TrEMBL record:
Residues 37-355 form the Dihydroxy-acid/6-phosphogluconate dehydratase N-terminal domain. This is Dihydroxy-acid dehydratase. Gene3D superfamilies: IlvD/EDD C-terminal domain-like (3.50.30.80). It comes from Pelotomaculum propionicicum. The active site is at S475. It catalyses: (2R)-2,3-dihydroxy-3-methylbutanoate = 3-methyl-2-oxobutanoate + H2O; (2R,3R)-2,3-dihydroxy-3-methylpentanoate = (S)-3-methyl-2-oxopentanoate + H2O. The modification N6-carboxylysine is found at K127. Homodimer. It is an enzyme of class 4 (lyase). It holds the Pfam family ILV_EDD_C. Its cofactor is [2Fe-2S] cluster; Mg(2+). Binds 1 [2Fe-2S] cluster per subunit. This cluster acts as a Lewis acid cofactor. Its EC number is 4.2.1.9. Pathway: Amino-acid biosynthesis; L-isoleucine biosynthesis; L-isoleucine from 2-oxobutanoate: step 3/4; Amino-acid biosynthesis; L-valine biosynthesis; L-valine from pyruvate: step 3/4.
């Protein structure tokens, strides 16, 4: 399209050879005029198994109205989506990260086959968001991403509530005998009151907020509540806006540049986003051909302060952030201190700086000034050491002060199930460092989120005494000294595979180190006796193919491609 006006859809709508194609469109009720207009794919991840997606039909409808009103022809098609909460703490959790690549691949498949001219991508939860952004960059046709928006805050016993605080953590509290079965049931009934992504700053909301800073989501994308009329209006505007992008030939790679990724990381550090954002931003950048590295997170974390504390790190929820001015107000704070690239292009057709120029903070308890942050550094830290030569990730903003430096004996488990049973069975002692390995992208496979073990530790009141390390990953709802993405992973022979029960592990988050206190020689001797494990999944399953192709978490757990 650059320099001339040829639209991809002309390959299916124009000329003599395409008479059969047009006939197929007419079979569906499209008119002759419809086929003269840009064909806009409305990628709708609606399903009836994710609260964040249960209302997406309404948003797709609104987006279609926006496209039509702006002179385009909207054409909807679906993609899959997993609810991480429902997939949690069993073997289903091996699929969500892997679903990211399936989603990207299936959008590529639909768009390449049918020749759309632009996309409105509609999703809400965890892996569906990066999967969609990866596809947008791979295809590089004009695209706008719209999220389903956050769930309203729940309430329990007069306090704000969400899926994690208190509910996931209540499982540990129940095991420790500090709450009754009836209390647990009351929490179940009240923690998640509406449609939308779970109300804390977990992975879904983190990604939806970062989409604003990346420029691919409209202002308000991260925080406008899911049930609000404004959410539908946002989808309508997205439909209108994608038409503008088609006209002006502005594509995802013009928007999601290295500077835009740096903006997203700066926002992530300021709000204390999910540790999963590290994996996803690296994978999205990989599709953009942008040289983003794990080190970029640490460099930006060193200079961007943490100014918001939302659940699980604090008591505020996305609704509080919305009322306080939303992501635009946070970005305005950062921009005012020279911490952003404000000249970056966005899907509004304006720059990021123009988008946020009128924003203001309406509650300084929810969005603190840069001069009075929670911490001078950002929410996420990258650790290295003899246990993680290729890096590890911790959400330092959600670590109890007492645990920022900790040395304790390793309690080693070769799966999440074994570790969870030990925690729930009261077999973890104060001071212990729980090691959960063979749960990496390849070894798991699928790099499970360890929300149940980390929440059980917290719920049992051990979060100021016990650390947890893994080559798997965490939920955005995880808090405590939970260090994940340890790379290389155990099944690839990473040093985490060589740790033995009782080894002393030294964690120093301020110094960014993670080490097992054994000599280099001892480590080398243990390595000689180490055997790579047999793959856990074989045969024809998608997961077996995924395990064969997936690469390290330190580079986003993307799939290796040939050549
Ligand atoms: C279920 C959750 C809380 O959404 C989790 O999957 C996350 O990553 O945040
Ligand atoms: Mg998740």
């Amino acid at each position: 399209m650059k320099g001339n006006s040829v639209l991809p859809s002309e390959q299916v709508t124009q000329g003599v050879a395409r008479a059969p194609h047009r006939s197929l469109f007419y079979a569906m009720g499209y008119t002759k005029e419809d086929l003269q207009k840009p064909l806009i794919g409305i990628v709708n991840a609606f399903n009836e198994i994710i609260p964040g997606h249960i209302h997406l039909r309404d948003l797709a409808q609104a987006a279609k109205l926006g496209v039509s009103a702006a002179g385009g022809t909207p054409i909807e098609f679906p993609v899959i989506g997993i609810c991480d909460g429902i997939a949690m703490n069993h073997n289903g959790m091996k699929y969500p990260l892997a679903s990211r690549e399936l989603i990207a691949d299936s959008i590529e498949t639909m768009v390449m086959a049918h020749k759309f001219d632009g996309l409105v991508l509609i999703a809400d939860c965890d892996k569906i968001v990066p999967g969609m952004l990866m596809a947008a960059l791979r295809l590089n046709i004009p695209s706008v991403y719209v999220s389903g928006g956050p769930m309203l805050t729940g309430s329990y016993a007069g306090q704000k509530a969400d899926l994690v605080r208190p509910l996931f953590e209540a499982v540990g509290a129940y095991a420790a005998g500090s709450i009754s079965g009836q209390e647990l049931e009351e929490m179940e009934l009240s923690a998640c009151p509406t449609c939308g992504s779970c109300a804390g700053l977990f992975t879904a909301n983190s990604m939806n907020c970062l989409a604003e800073a990346l420029g691919i989501g409209l202002p308000g994308n991260g925080t406008i509540p899911a049930p609000y009329g404004q959410r539908k209006a946002l989808a309508k505007i997205a439909g209108r806006q994608v038409m503008q992008l088609v006209k002006e030939n502005i594509r995802p790679r013009d928007i999601m540049t290295l500077n835009a990724f740096h903006n997203a990381i700066a926002l992530d550090m300021a709000i204390g986003g999910s540790s999963n954002t590290v994996l996803h931003l690296l994978a999205i950048a990989d599709e953009a051909g942008v040289p983003l590295k794990l080190e970029d997170f640490d460099k930006i974390s060193a200079r961007v302060p943490n100014i918001c504390k939302l659940s699980p790190g604090g008591i505020h929820r996305l609704f509080d952030l919305y009322v306080a001015g939303g992501i635009s107000a946070v970005l305005k704070q950062l921009g005012g201190q020279g911490l952003l690239h404000l000249e970056e292009k966005t899907v509004t057709g304006k720059t990021l700086g123009e988008n946020i120029s009128k924003a203001e903070v309406r509650n300084v308890e929810v969005i603190r000034p840069i001069s009075d942050p929670y911490t001078k550094q950002g929410g996420i830290a990258i650790l290295r050491g003899n246990l993680a030569p290729d890096g590890a990730v911790v959400k330092q903003s959600a670590v109890a002060k007492e645990m920022l430096k900790h040395t304790g004996p390793a309690r080693v488990f070769d799966s999440e199930e074994e570790a969870f049973d030990a925690i729930m069975g009261g077999r973890i002692n104060k001071g212990d460092v729980v090691v959960i390995r063979y749960e990496g992208p390849k070894g798991g496979p699928g790099m499970r989120e360890m929300l149940s073990p980390t929440s059980a530790i917290t719920g049992m009141g051990l979060d100021k005494d016990v650390a947890l390390l893994t080559d798997g990953r965490f939920s955005g709802g995880t808090r405590g000294a939970s260090i994940g993405h340890i790379s290389p992973e155990a099944s690839e022979g990473g040093p985490i595979a060589l740790v033995q029960e009782g080894d002393l592990i030294e964690i120093n988050i301020p110094k960014r180190t993670i080490n097992v206190k054994i000599t280099r020689k001892e480590l080398a001797d243990r390595r000689k006796n180490w055997q790579p494990p047999a793959p856990k999944v074989t045969g024809k399953s998608y997961l077996a193919r995924y395990a064969a192709q997936v690469t390290s978490a330190s580079t986003g757990a993307v799939l290796r491609t040939r050549g």
